[in-house]
Each structure stands twice: as C-alpha cells, then as structure tokens.
Amino acid sequence: MDVVAPPPPPRLGPPPNAFLVGIVGLLLPGLGHVLAGRPGKGFFYFAVVGLAFTTGLWMTGLVAVNPDRDALWFAGQALAGLPTLGVWQATKDLVPTERLATFDLGMLYTGVAGLLNVVAIADALGIVEDRVAEADMRRRSAAVEAHLAAEARALAALDAPPAGSLPHDGLPVAGPPTEAAPATVPSTDGGPAS
To answer: Which of 32, 116, 134, 163 is the most buried (most CB within 10 A)?
Structure first.
C-alpha cells in the first residue's frame, strides 16, 4: 500500500516579533493574529470581542465605559483596547438618567470583552511561538542535512580505491597508462648491457 506524505506547510517567512504582536493585539482585538499570519482567526476574535463589547454597551444605554463612575469595570473594559478609549471619549459626557434592568449584565459583557481580548492575545503569542519553533527546526534541519552531505562526500572520497589497488572483487584496478622503463641487465665487462 502506497503512503502519500502530506505536502509541506507553506513557508510564512520569518516569525514576527512577539512583543509587537502583543501590543497590536492589545490595541485592536484580532490585529495580533493578522500580524502573526492568521488573519482568519484575527477576524474571528475581532468579531467575538466586538460583539460582546457592543452588546454590553447597548445593555447599559451606552454609559458602561466611564472610569470615574466604575473604575474596576473600566480596568477590565480597557483590556479590549482602542475601542474602549473611543467609546469612553464619545460617551464621557453622557449621564445616566435611569438605571436599566440590564445595566449590570451589560457591564459584565463589556468586562468579559476585555478578558476575551486577553485570551486572543495569548493565542496570537502562541502562534508566534509555534512559528519561532518551526523556523528554528527548519534551520537545524538544514544544518544537519548540510553536515550529512559533507560527511557523505568525505566518505565517498575515502572509499574510492587508488589506482593500481585491488578492489573488493580481487581484480586489479586499471590505472593510468605508464611507460615501462627499459630493463637493464648487468654485464660482465663492467658496463651496462642492453
């Protein structure tokens, strides 16, 4: 039975800087995934965090984000990044006239949105870590292959029999043709004989 190996994964280039991925993921949910080379996952996290945040805003009547009224909730909401800052600046002058029945649940949704973004950042950093390990493995594999190729060439050079020696089958190896020197026989009169 023939076994077909799966195609190698596409090369994504060098892995991005983990610090930069964390910072941009904190600024905008999902952007760290885009920088790490996983834009589909980035869009997913952007949609999930954004949906939780906007649902919470709607449930509070748009007055959920205010560090003066709810500092502890704001700390959690701030983890959702720049959307929190934008909403705070846009709604800081709004004063709640009545407390909606869904206000507390809305605050919870906006706080959970910030915590979901922390999960997204951790996932993006995990992708970067995997890409760093993959790049290191490729580099080591290439070094091992180069070393093995050099050893194979060295062994092949050592295994090549020199000219005139006997190979493994016992027959002489033909070397380059050489001219035979004339044989000299000593003569009895003291001079060389031919």
So the answer is: 32
Smallest CA-to-CA distance from 74 within 111, 23, 116 is with: 111
Question: Is 10 a residue whose pLDDT tops 90?
Answer: no
Strand partners for 193: 185
Q: Which two tokens stand for residue 35?
A: 């920088």
Angle formed by the axes of helices 18-27 and 103-159, to 10°? 160
Residue 97: other Cβ atoms inside 10 A: 7
Say which residue, 128 or 4, is predicted with more confidence.
128
Q: Pull the structure tokens for residue 115.
A: 């915590």
63, 24 contact by CB (below 8 A): no
DSSP 79: G
Distance CA 4, CA 114 (A): 45
pLDDT band at 8 (very low <50, low <70, confident <90, very high): low
DSSP string, 11-72: P--SPPPHHHHHHHHHHSTTHHHHHTT-HHHHHHHHHHHHHHHHHHHHHTTT----TTT-HH
pTM above 0.85, yes or no: no
Q: How confident is the model at residue 166 (pLDDT cuts 50, 70, 90)?
A: low
3-class state of residue 168 by DSSP: coil
